[in-house]
């Protein structure tokens, strides 16, 4: 069900449309796997707390035609249409919760020997990393507030990082040696080091300037974090353009990083993340606007698409007009965030 085509009433009851964007963290999730697991918890909680009758909660899937029985997640579709809806019937209204997913596990690099070497070298070198000296989009330093300890890394923290890196490296080699012995004894191995690398490399992915094998084709020369942020921005725009009365973001673990990055992106750069089709749909909504002040499109990341005029922007006030909050859980951030976020 496309939120832009959602009915105003069902059986004479007014419908309140709520959008929810779910963002997964590190791991090797399949598409819609995180959406299914998290929405199942939410729906079960709704049934337990609000379902006076079992039929008060109705779940619907937006499916494709690949499977006659609509049984596999691969048949779900995404985009402007939410792949999963939960319709909750109250006495005087019906709440239609549309669940969207930002999936980015496929952007991680394929496990190879080279990836393992690069992972260990990265882990052992982070204690000597320099402070961030990359250039910023002109104007952002005056319009955003950096964290209190931005750019600072004390000698004590560098020592702690070096200690953890060496300890973790030695531990992993020990696990690999134990697994070799267990294999010779026909016993079950411990957690494979490949699994550890594949999971924790998601953290490394956000620090990389390039991706082994190249990035997704809609941004082949971009850092992986930009490709992930693109999916987050596109999901926010799709939900904001839909017929929803309010919408939220639920970000888990490392997924809080692309969620927060997208929320803080400036309005001059936001259109750069969209496809040509998305921008065409957006151009007829209040979200599309023109900047009164010129800005440098050559300094942007991601690059400015050829179909955008130099002064076209996405109005942040219109984009977040019906945004009501972000909830982070399993989050790497300790401090509470704006919009009523939970740590």
In helices, the fraction of residues equals 25-40%
Count of spatially separate domains: 2
What is the total tally of β strands? 9
Shape: globular
Strand content: 15-25%
What's the overall average pLDDT, rounded?
81
Judged by helices, strands and strand pairing, the structural class is alpha/beta
Note poorly predicted spans: 67-71, 335-343
What pattern of helices and strands is seen along the backbone? EEHEEEHHHHHEHHEEHE
How many DSSP helices?
Answer: 9
Radius of gyration: 23 Å
Q: What's the main sheet like?
A: 7 strands, mixed
Walk me through the topology.
Elements: E1 9-10, E2 13-23, H1 33-50, E3 57-61, E4 84-89, E5 94-102, H2 113-125, H3 140-143, H4 155-184, H5 193-205, H6 224-241, E6 246-252, H7 256-264, H8 276-282, E7 288-290, E8 312-314, H9 316-319, E9 323-329
Parallel strand pairs: 2-5, 2-6, 6-9
Antiparallel strand pairs: 1-2, 3-4, 4-5, 7-8
Helix pairs in contact: 2-4, 6-7
